[in-house]
Amino acid sequence: MKNLLLAVLLLFQVGVLSAQHCCVNDSVIREIQFPLTERDTETVFYYFNEEWICGAVPDMIEPDSILKIEIKNDEYDNRAVFITVSPETLSQLKSKVDETYRNLFVNYDPQCEFPGGNGKLKEWIEANIRVPEGYKGTERVVAQFKVQPDGSVTDSKIIRPSKNEAANAEALRLVNALPKFRVKYFTPKKAPLCYAMPIVFKELGLIYIR
Fold first, then answer.
1. Confidence (pTM)
2. Which element (helix H / strand E) includes 23?
């Protein structure tokens, strides 16, 4: 029964390490397909004896060593898998994790992407921009915003304004209208991500992002 339950749990492990950038001998292993899909953002967190161990997954221990398995929310409100093992098994697991990642760099920084990739972000802005009537010349507005763990955009503000107040207002409107981003976290504690986005207004209604 434990073997069957463990096998089911492992099916949920899609994405646990899939989006990590691992550097071995100066070679980069990219294990995720870009752009991010909704499934890529589904990280399953595993706790062993109520402790989250960076890099530890169930297949690092013997199924028979599992004393109990629960699925519940952790302190950060993530749906997580809690596995109870003996103190000896926990010690062996920590040693195995340390040995596995000793010579391996794993990037646990969150990944954040507009649905479809940055190219789609540019297309979205070009389709939704409202260049102020009678606008002349070319100017750039830089907007700053936060992406929350659920992908929503908050706390938008202009950090590099244009001389044209109407352009500033339009840049802020665009940022506030952005659809949800796709965010991938690799640690249970999820903090908002801060970004700056330059938007260039052109006289003919064309913009570009760089």
1. 0.71
2. strand 21-24
Q: 3-class secondary structure for 41-105? A: HCCCEEEECCEECCCCCHHHCCHHHEEEEEEEECCCCCEEEEEEECHHHHHHHHHHHHHHHCCCE
Do the beta carbons of residue 195 and residue 167 sit within 8 Å? no
Tokens of 22: 């691992």
Q: Give the phi and the psi of residue 39 in degrees, each rounded to 5.
A: -65, -35
Q: What are phi and psi of 146, to 5 degrees?
A: -115, 140
Q: Is the pLDDT of residue 195 over 50?
A: yes
Residue 51 and residue 7 share a domain:
yes
Which residue range is the domain that position 197 belongs to? 116-208
Residues 130 and 99 in one domain: no
pLDDT at position 133: 84
